[in-house]
Specification:
About 60% of the residues lie in helices and about 5% in strands. It is mostly helical. The radius of gyration is 51 Å and the shape is flat.
Length: about 800
């Protein structure tokens, strides 16, 4: 990117095309369109003489068809004029844009730079930056305007071209390899509808129906003109409801059997992904088609490196393990997205006993070779005339990274199993209907064996199939969605032949089951006796010989190690599974449930007893607190009543004293007044006037002094009474405060005791729960170490764990 003076970016218009070249191309287009018209017009002139020469069937339709090319040629001239006008306008715009860009680059930018230099010579740094920024913004705005006008000119040109309709859509076109373009175009449109996200069963069926109408040449033309149709498999049903609408084995067989040999050959060669994934087509044919698809995509750079690595792994897995290992076939193959496949050993079209194997977390076509090694062990253990199918037809959960993560987050959820279960049900019913549709093939015994998360997937499938299978065997199950099946009888399996086993030293399966409580659906164990499956041992119990399992793997490792997987020859579970698939399951001595389920139930029961103990303690605390509150309320009422009575008594005594004082004062004042009145009356009668006046004045003065003294005395008495009443009130308030303070102190003491008791109970509960969790974690650690540590005594460790839990029983 080049930055011009002041940091202006002109890169958006660096590569403006040559306007004159555009004008020349427009003129060439005109010449070409005129040449086409001239040739068509000459042919039309020749055809005009045919009515006098030809007189036969379809004469009106023939002559009408002859008239169409001239009309189409005239339309072509009109379209050419539209394109030429748009091209000329584009060329004019390019010329103008180039002129504006040159002026900006060579004139405006240098002039503005000089102007900025002059303005900033004497400016302070901050003012200098502001001047430069304003100038840059102004110039970049001009540059951006040129770029926007270039985008607008291109849009105008594209709009003009988009408005031109295709000429002669119903005329046979030489560029469609001599085929009817309408039929091929319709096939392409139906293909796109059938393979788009969210395509329905009706979309898929419409595509199949139209393909049945094409000639072999048209089928070849479809693949040649639209190569994306060659390696794209038809979509699978996603939901249980889709199974009712998507074409299955019955519909696929009818479609295939209704085609001619040449059409079948054309489809097999041209649309191999379609043929190879169509239920109802014989499996030998599907194998050939899928191998063709595999060859197409192996080195196609349009696929990712990861996808191509999976394709190579599939190719390697198709190689026989040995001279007597049985033929291998690619029964389905979808290269897009996460590649999916189904690989078989044996003659699936004619075998009398066919077993489908569904793997769990971490499985997929990236490890087809390893999965086929495991399947070879199963095939080798079956009787003559049998076949086995490795079904990798769903997106299984990724492997967890470490045991402490309690499983991959994906494996804790059921979404992938739900979708995968629908696809598996489609495949199982398709197998039944494929074998039924061909007269020389009887429906064989059909078995499903599933491992880990594959059991979760297969459980969904066997509640959605139309046709029952003969045996369903689950080993190392990650748990079953009870919404799909909460009992073995919910599966579409004949005669209750639902079997399950779980090795005691398998650390992953229980984690998948228990961990699912943190996922979207809590799952249940099929080896629990309540589920109702036929549970057999993988731990050496019962009458079937073999080594006890040592982990979660299907095959633990090399022949030189001490580990034993579920389907590893020589293990007890392998011997039991082979007996079941061979129809000898009744000879197996069953167990009530797996030891793991018993252990989990024991721990769960003890944790529940801890919860109940805590609840009992909590209830006792609540009851004690209620009783304490009731006693406090009663005591507070009693204290308040006593204080109120004491205060009422004191107030009554004070009021009585004051009344007696007032009465005495009134009597004294009345007596003094009477005495003074008599003195004044006697003085008036017996003394001379002047003396009487003097005496009366002295009496009045004395009475005033006496009244003042009485008032002063009464005031003193009242103050004394008030002071006494204040002291009484203070005493009462003190008594009442002391009572309340005592109550509050008692309440605080009670609350403190209650809080302490409750806190202690909660700490006891938390400790017990943590102890229970530690016991569970310890159990898992025992199993983990057991798989790695020589001489570790698991039974002794479990006894220590049980003794620890037994110590909690008093609670």
């Amino acid at each position: 990117m080049v930055y011009y003076p002041l940091g202006v970016d002109l890169s958006a218009t660096d590569e403006l095309p040559d306007a004159e070249a555009v004008r020349t191309a427009a003129g060439t287009l005109k010449d070409a369109a005129q040449d086409v018209y001239d040739h068509v017009e000459a042919a039309h002139t020749t055809w005009a003489g045919l009515p006098g020469v030809y007189d036969g069937p379809g004469e009106p339709a023939l002559f009408a068809a002859f008239a169409r090319p001239l009309t189409d040629a005239e339309d072509l001239l009109g379209s050419e004029e539209t394109v030429r006008t748009a091209a000329r306008a584009l060329a004019t715009a390019i010329t103008s844009l180039k002129t504006r860009r040159t002026t900006l680059r060579d004139t405006t930018l240098p002039a503005k730079e000089a102007e900025v230099d002059r303005a900033t010579d004497a400016a302070d740094p901050l003012h200098h930056q502001l001047i430069v920024a304003l100038a840059r913004a102004e110039l970049q705005g001009i540059a951006d305007g040129i770029a926007e006008d270039w985008e607008a000119a291109q849009d105008d040109y594209d709009t003009a071209l988009d408005g031109i309709a295709r000429t002669a859509t119903d005329t046979t076109a030489h560029f469609d390899y001599g085929t009817n373009s309408a039929a091929v175009s319709t096939a392409r449109e139906l293909f796109e509808a059938a393979t788009r996200p969210g395509a329905t069963g009706a979309d898929v069926s419409a595509y199949y129906a139209h393909l049945a109408t094409l000639t072999p040449e048209q089928i070849e033309a479809l693949g040649a003109a639209h190569p994306e149709t060659r390696a794209t498999a038809p979509p699978l049903p996603v939901t249980a409801a889709d199974l009712d609408t998507f074409p299955g084995g019955r519909e696929g067989a009818a479609w295939w059997n209704g085609l001619g040999e040449e059409a079948r050959a054309a489809l097999l060669a041209t649309l191999p992904a379609l043929v190879g994934n169509t239920q109802g087509v014989p499996y030998a044919t599907r194998d050939a088609a899928n191998r063709t698809t595999l060859a197409l995509v192996l080195d196609d750079p349009s696929y990712t490196a990861e996808q191509r690595a999976a394709y190579r792994n599939i190719r390697e897995a198709l190689l026989p393990a040995g001279p007597d290992s049985g033929p291998r076939g690619l029964l389905s193959f979808s290269p897009d997205g996460r590649p999916l496949a189904a690989v078989s050993i044996g003659d699936v079209d004619h075998a009398g006993n066919v077993t489908f194997s569904v793997s769990g977390m971490g499985s997929g076509t990236h490890n087809t070779t390893g999965e086929m090694d495991n399947l070879q062990d199963v095939y080798d253990g079956l009787g003559p005339g049998s076949a086995a199918v490795l079904w990798l037809g769903y997106d299984s959960p990724d492997l967890p990274q470490h045991l402490d993560t309690a499983g991959s987050p994906e494996v804790l959820n059921v979404a992938q199993a739900d979708v995968g279960g629908t696809a598996l049900a489609h495949a199982l019913d398709g197998f039944h209907e494929t074998r039924s549709a061909h007269g020389d093939r009887e429906v064989p015994q059909v078995n499903v064996v599933a491992h880990s998360y594959g059991t979760t997937t297969a459980a969904y499938a066997l509640t959605r199939t139309e046709h029952a299978v003969d045996h369903f065997v689950m080993y190392g199950s990650a748990g079953i969605d009870p919404g799909a099946a909460d009992h073995a009888s919910d599966f579409n399996v004949r005669d209750g032949n639902v079997w399950a086993t779980l090795a005691y030293k398998d650390p992953w399966a229980p984690i998948g089951q228990v961990g699912s409580f943190f996922g979207d659906v809590p799952r249940i164990s099929p080896t629990d006796d309540a589920f109702g499956a036929r549970v057999f041992s993988s731990d050496g119990e019962g009458n079937i010989p073999g080594h006890a399992g040592t982990g979660h793997d299907q095959v633990a490792g090399s022949a030189n190690d001490d580990g034993w997987g579920y389907i590893e020859p020589g293990s007890q579970s392998y011997n039991s599974i082979m007996a079941i698939l061979d129809g000898r399951g009744e000879s197996i001595e069953l167990i009530g449930q797996s030891r793991r389920d018993t252990m989990i139930e024991d721990v769960t029961a003890r944790v529940r007893s801890i919860e109940e103990a805590y609840q009992n303690v909590q209830q006792g605390i609540d009851d004690a607190q209620l009783r304490g509150n009731a006693r406090y309320d009663a005591f507070q009422d009693a204290v308040s009543g006593y204080v109120d009575r004491q205060q009422d008594g004191a107030n009554a005594a004070v009021d009585g004293t004051q009344r007696r004082v007032d009465s005495a004062v009134d009597r004294g004042q009345d007596g003094a007044g009477s005495l003074i009145d008599r003195l004044q009356s006697g003085a008036t009668r017996h003394l001379p006037g002047p003396v009487s006046t003097l005496v009366n004045g002295g009496v009045d003065a004395g009475q005033s002094v006496l009244d003042a003294g009485i008032d002063a005395g009464q005031h003193v008495v009242n103050r004394g009474v008030d002071a006494g009443q204040g002291l009484v009130n203070l005493a009462v308030d003190g008594l009442q405060g002391a009572g309340h303070g005592g109550l509050e102190a008692l309440q605080d003491l009670g609350n403190g005791a209650t809080d302490a008791l409750q806190g202690g109970a909660e700490r006891v509960h938390d400790g017990l729960v943590e102890a229970g969790k530690d016991a569970v974690t310890g159990t898992r650690r025992v199993v983990e170490h057991l798989t790695r540590t020589e001489g570790f005594d698991v039974e002794a460790a479990m006894d220590r764990g049980r003794k620890f839990l037994d110590g909690l029983n008093p609670l």
